[in-house]
């Protein structure tokens, strides 16, 4: 019963926020002369078609990894805004390495993934070192590093360095990764022509690892303690600088994986049209999912579903940006809603303790519920 | 003019009324209530005969009450003028009317002897001037009653004299000053009337002519001696921790701790007496490895630990009851069992290798909850849901777990009720007889005298006096602490 109540309290914030977002979106639709119900219905019909579902799962896979990378930092009040630069640089280098490798199948994939993680972690480490040594806010440095990474990628992705011309187009990209380095997809959705990324399993594994790390290890405890109260964490013996470095490396390593499902499951090359901006989507989804591995999964699926189903809107003469508004409003209101629920929860617990002690039944006092 | 339930204070217009009391005696709570920052549960406040309800500082300001905080609340990169008008900007039309504000500040400065250059940038002016700016800020908003919270804590003696001259000026022009302090000689010098508070109640109101600093100290701390039957010494010959010439300085080079040396043996309690802010917190944090000393040695259990990080010190058996439990002792938004792990997250029963041992931590939390009588419906509630006293009991229970060799205890019974206080004392005594060495810091002189085997008095970062708890009285100790003259014992 108590557990149920706690779960309900956890769900009430996102549900309310989402309802509010739908309401705001409806109002805008009405104001722009569309019937909200019709628009939502056509989005639902399009979004739930098999091809769209497969696309949604694929998008959600990358979004999930990106949000996890952000969430690792968020849990200790470390704001890694640089996931974007980290995953793009990591994808480029990993693609270049993968294109030149000729290893046995599984090993090839492992090497590419490890390279991506190392590059992402290395790029993030710059921000960590700047913070620890010079007190530079990681928000500023990671944003700057995003821009620097764009420059570095532009420099590296030229024909005399890492790039070759992509056949039959003006595009250039890295040497395509040979079949040994590719990860085949699954056809889990009946009737869909496109496969679901094989690396969706990697995303799931990362989620489980994140959950385990935070909830069950000493490191995770230190990380959460630092997020809850840096002063108390220091007094308890946490070396905050070390925590900053390690969590930034972790965050960067996960960020390095963000581009992998796409790279190893679909494009096999890092070219000029490799997806961008996934790092910022990750921030929004981490907020939406409250840095919780399951919450983030729902957030990523929702976000991906909206991104997929918006494709139909142009056909009905509705601007696609309406979905962006909905996503924005839902993030904004979910942050407010979480804070309200948090305060309510603190007050409720205080009342509960007060009531229990007023009753002063002996079995309530001094007995753990373990 | 002002009345309260447990606290009854009457302040007359045109006087300087001092409120003295130990830390935790309720001075700051009283001031917060007067300034509308906190609502009283019971009782009334009357201003000029009219009962008022102060819901916020702006209510208090509207009634002519102004507060000068102990810690300056100034924007360093703003000018004096900008700081004074901040939040109450005079406008003509939509423009800031700086000219008239500047004139007003000059006038106020001349009128009350508080002149400060309105166009000086705050970061360039001295501490005394900054305080004048704080007072000007309050006067600018039309305050007729000024509350000054420990205004001399940051001043050098000459600045104190200047401040007192200004207070005299304010008084002579019909303004009222409520002056909070525990520096008794200053209180005697400046106040027209003195109210002593102790443990949340007013003890008495006296005229400075009728008392001496010694007498005031006695009133402040109460004169009953603690129960003497605890004087059974368990001190052994084994040194468990010794500190030599420990010196700590701010980055600017101001000394916070000045060549502190002491030795604690197994089974010994060393009590540190001192008015808060004289280096106690810094001493504790340096011993715990949270601050890096300029020089000096700390030897623990035969090993030089001055370079050890905090975690290693805690793992080696140094337990720590912090002064500020919500900042350093607890994760308020985590459950009790997670708080049980804090500071001990690498040790049994909380950890198994690199993993957390949830079951072990939960079981041991339940043990602490029952042994230390933590009043809670369970161990899954958030720490913030408990009362301060119960939070403290949890912390004490946690720190006494795992048989530490040394306990660094700052105000171990702060905020707990009398019964729980006695229980914590018993726990500390029992641990002492098992060989625990304790560094005890407390504002409660009865506690210090009752528990300690030896006492040192800390004043401005230095040990200035030593006392034998068997013979010293709280009054003597209070005098030594407040620098009111007279070395204790």
Helix/strand order of chain A, N-terminal first: HHHHHHEEHHHHHHHH
State the low-pLDDT regions of chain A, or none: 361-370
CATH superfamily of the largest domain in chain B, by name, is P-loop containing nucleotide triphosphate hydrolases
Helix content of chain B: 25-40%
What is the architecture of the largest domain in chain B at the second tier of CATH?
Answer: 3-Layer(aba) Sandwich
Helix/strand/pairing category of chain B: alpha/beta
Biggest sheet statistics of chain A? 2 strands, antiparallel
Question: What portion of residues of chain B belong to β-strands?
Answer: 15-25%
Class derived from helix and strand content of chain A: mainly alpha
Tally of contiguous helical segments of chain B: 17
Order of neighbouring strands in the sheet with most strands of chain B: 4-7-8-1-9-10
* Multimeric organization: heterodimer
Overall average residue pLDDT of chain A? 89
* Gyration radius from CA atoms of chain B, angstroms: 25 Å
Note poorly predicted spans of chain B: 1-5, 224-229
Number of extended strands of chain B: 22
């Amino acid at each position: 019963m108590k557990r149920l109540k706690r779960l309900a309290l956890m769900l009430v914030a996102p549900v309310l926020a989402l309802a509010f977002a739908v309401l705001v979106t409806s109002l805008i639709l009405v104001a722009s002369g569309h019937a909200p119900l019709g628009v939502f219905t056509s989005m639902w019909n399009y979004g739930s078609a098999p091809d769209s579902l497969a696309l949604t799962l694929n998008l959600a896979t990358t979004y999930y990894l990106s949000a996890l990378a952000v969430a690792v930092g968020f849990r200790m009040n470390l704001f890694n805004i640089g996931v974007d630069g980290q995953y793009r640089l990591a994808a480029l280098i990993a693609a270049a390495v993968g294109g030149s490798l000729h290893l046995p199948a599984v090993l090839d994939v492992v090497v590419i993934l490890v390279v991506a993680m190392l590059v992402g972690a290395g790029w993030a480490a710059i921000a960590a070192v700047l913070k620890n040594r010079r007190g530079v806010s990681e928000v500023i440095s990671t944003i700057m590093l995003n821009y620097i990474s764009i420059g570095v990628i532009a420099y590296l992705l030229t024909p005399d360095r890492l790039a070759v011309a992509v056949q039959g187009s003006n595009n250039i990209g890295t040497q395509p990764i040979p079949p040994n380095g590719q990860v085949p997809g699954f056809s889990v959705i009946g009737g869909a022509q496109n496969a679901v990324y094989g690396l969706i399993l990697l995303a799931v594994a990362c989620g489980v690892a994140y959950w385990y790390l935070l909830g069950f290890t000493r490191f995770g405890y230190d990380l959460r303690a630092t997020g809850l109260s840096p002063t108390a964490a220091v007094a308890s013996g946490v070396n905050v600088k070390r925590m900053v470095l390690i969590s930034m490396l972790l965050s960067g390593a996960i960020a390095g994986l963000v581009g992998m499902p796409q790279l190893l499951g679909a494009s096999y090359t890092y070219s000029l049209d490799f997806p961008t901006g996934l790092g910022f989507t990750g921030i929004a989804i981490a907020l939406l999912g409250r840095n919780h591995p399951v919450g983030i999964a729902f957030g990523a699926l929702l976000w991906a579903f909206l991104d997929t189903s918006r494709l139909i809107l142009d056909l009905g003469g509705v601007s696609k940006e309406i979905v962006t508004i909905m996503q924005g409003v839902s993030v904004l209101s979910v942050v407010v809603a979480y804070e309200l629920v948090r305060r309510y929860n603190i007050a409720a617990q205080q009342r509960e303790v007060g009531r229990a002690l007023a009753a002063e039944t002996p079995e309530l006092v001094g007995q753990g519920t373990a | 003019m002002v009345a309260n339930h447990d606290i009854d204070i009457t302040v007359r217009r045109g006087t300087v009324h001092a409120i003295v009391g130990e830390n935790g005696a309720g001075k700051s709570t009283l001031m917060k209530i007067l300034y509308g920052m906190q609502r009283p549960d019971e009782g009334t406040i009357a201003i000029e005969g009219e009962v008022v309800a102060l819901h916020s500082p702006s209510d208090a300001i509207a009634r002519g009450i102004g507060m000068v905080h102990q810690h300056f609340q100034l924007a360093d990169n703003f000018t004096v003028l900008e700081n004074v008008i901040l939040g109450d900007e005079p406008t003509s039309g939509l423009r800031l009317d700086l000219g008239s504000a500047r004139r007003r500040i000059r006038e106020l400065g001349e009128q009350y002897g508080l002149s400060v250059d309105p166009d000086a940038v705050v970061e360039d002016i001295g501490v005394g001037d900054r305080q004048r700016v704080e007072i000007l800020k309050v006067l600018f908003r039309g305050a007729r009653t000024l509350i000054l919270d420990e205004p001399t804590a940051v001043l050098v003696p000459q600045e104190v004299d200047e401040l007192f001259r200004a207070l005299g000026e304010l008084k002579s022009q019909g303004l009222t000053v409520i002056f909070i302090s525990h520096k008794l000689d200053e209180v005697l010098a400046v106040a027209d009337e003195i109210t002593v508070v102790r443990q949340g109640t007013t003890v008495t109101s006296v005229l400075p002519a009728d008392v001496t600093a010694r007498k005031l100290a006695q009133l402040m701390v109460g004169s009953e001696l603690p129960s003497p039957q605890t004087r059974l010494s368990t001190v052994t010959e084994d040194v468990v921790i010794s500190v030599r010439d420990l010196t700590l300085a701010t980055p600017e080079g101001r000394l916070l701790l000045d060549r502190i040396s002491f030795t604690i043996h197994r089974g010994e309690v060393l009590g540190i007496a001192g008015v808060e802010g004289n280096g106690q917190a810094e001493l504790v944090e340096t011993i715990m490895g949270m601050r890096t000393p300029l020089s000096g040695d700390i030897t623990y259990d035969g090993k030089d630990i001055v370079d050890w990080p905090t975690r290693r010190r805690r793992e080696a058996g140094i337990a720590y009851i912090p002064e500020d439990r919500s900042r350093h002792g607890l994760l308020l938004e985590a459950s009790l069992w997670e708080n049980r792990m804090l500071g001990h997250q690498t040790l049994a029963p909380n950890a198994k290798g690199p993993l957390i041992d949830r079951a072990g931590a939960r079981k041991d939390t339940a043990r602490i909850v029952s042994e230390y009588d933590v009043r809670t419906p369970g161990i899954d509630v958030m720490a913030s849901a408990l009362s301060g006293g119960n939070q403290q009991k949890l912390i004490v229970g946690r720190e006494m777990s795992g048989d530490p060799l040394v306990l660094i205890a700052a105000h171990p019974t702060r905020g707990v009720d009398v019964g729980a206080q006695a229980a914590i004392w018993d726990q500390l005594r029992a641990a002492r007889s098992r060989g625990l060495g304790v560094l005890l810091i407390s504002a409660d002189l009865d506690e210090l005298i009752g528990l300690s085997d030896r006492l040192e008095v800390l004043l401005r970062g230095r040990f200035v006096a030593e006392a034998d708890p068997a013979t010293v009285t709280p009054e003597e100790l209070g005098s030594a602490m407040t620098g009111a003259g007279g070395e204790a014992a």
